[in-house]
Every structure is written in structure tokens, then in C-alpha cells.
């Protein structure tokens, strides 16, 4: 019998959905008007939204507690601006880490006039820090596990793109942490569980996570967080 680590599935078709003519957001955890008693945060990770934004449109969000926000474009680019004066544009193949203080706002916009953009936003609780300068990084999306953000001692993230039957192994920096695996694209097996695009898998009491692509191509995001 294959060993089963402790885990919880977050299925794509069970996510919250908020939809308007110019905006669509899928919520893995409780967010805004969406509430499900089974979709509570996983450790310090309390928001994982997959957003689609029409050309020229944007929105503002209020942060109610000290939080690291990670912005990860999947298709196209987004611009961002917060109340502390930090701003910029990031595109697919880049990631942005912003530390937001309690009571601050973040504006996200689609810089294109007519093209749709698709991006992920992750919110991770952490103690307030004085240094709030945004950290951005570029990465190559291939079959090598790439670290894309790292708040040392708190949380880190990695991404990988695998062809059919290719495998990757993520080793935790701290075995007391948990790991959230999110299928951005394609079909895969993670720690002996099947995931399809939009599915998430929370794991704990593990030292490493094994992932194998089952479709022709699969892109997976791995987020290690404190529990």
C-alpha cells in the first residue's frame, strides 16, 4: 500500500466564484462574500485567488492585518500600486512579493486596453516588519523546481513545469511547516493524490512532496507555510 501523508483536497469546482462583466475570481479559501466552513485558511496562507481581469480594468483591496501578498501573472501582465507608494508592472515569468501593513490598500490593474490577463494572488499572514520594499523576481518556467519567493523563517514558494511522466521533489525547509500544492495547469499526481487544473492540496507532517505530471504539460505552484 502506498504511504498516505496527512492532507486535505481543495477541488477547483468547489471554489468560490465572484463574477462581473469585467472581472472573475475563483477563491480557494473563504474570501469576500464567499464562505464555506470547510475552506478555512491553511496555516498562515489565507487567500489563494485565481483572477481574470478585462482590459483597462482594475480593483482595490484593503488589507486588515499584516500580510505578505504574492502576485503571480499566468497570462499577460498586471500593474500594482499600494498606499505606501510602491508600484510597478510584472508579467508572466515574474513574481512580486509585497509586505502590506494593517489598514493599507493595494490596487491591481490590467495595463492592456483589450487583452484579458490572468494571475494568482496569495495572502500569507506574518508579523509586521519595518522593511516593506517590494521584492520582485524573474524565473524560467521549466522542469527544474524554481524558488520564486522566500521570506526566510516564515514561508517560501516554488514553481515547476513538467512534461508527461516527469517528476519533481520539493523538500521542506522546516518539517514543522505545511505545504500547499496548487495545480496551475494540467493534470498531475502529488503525494499519491490526483490533481487537475485549479485543484489544491494541503499537506502536513511531511518532509518532502513528490509530484508527477500526468498530462502532456503540467504547471504546479508549491507554497511552504507555517502552521
From TrEMBL:
TM region positions: none
Ranges of residues in domain Quercetin 2,3-dioxygenase C-terminal cupin: 160-222
Pfam families, per the entry: Pirin, Pirin_C_2
Gene3D superfamilies on file: Jelly Rolls (2.60.120.10)
Source organism superkingdom: Bacteria
InterPro entries assigned: Pirin, Pirin_N_dom, Quercetinase_C, RmlC-like_jellyroll, RmlC_Cupin_sf
Residue ranges of every copy of the Pirin N-terminal domain listed in the record: 17-124
Similarity annotation: Belongs to the pirin family.
Protein name, entry field: Pirin
Organism: Chitinophaga tropicalis
